[in-house]
Write a structure and sequence with these properties.
About 25% of the residues lie in helices and about 40% in strands. The chain is of the alpha+beta class.
Length: about 100
Amino acid sequence: MILATVPFSSTQKKSIVAVKHPVLIDTVRIYVKGAPELVIPNCLKHYDESGALREIDGATRSYLMDNMLNGLMTTKGLRVIAFSISDMSLSAFEEL
């Protein structure tokens, strides 16, 4: 069940969807899709190459921002998009 949406805008460079989690009781999952320079700085964890969930440290954040965005992808004319998720309690979501 979708609880809220913020459609993509060129000003914000991101879109947001909040849904009631289908399995976790009283949990809202927030999905953010947008420009990596806006999404990545707000991320606390990431999945590494092996699929393990890890904390984002300064070196990883720098690698993502500098090498992937400014070096390898955007200079080749590729469009780059980042995705993130966050879970919060239904009561915390309702307080927003």
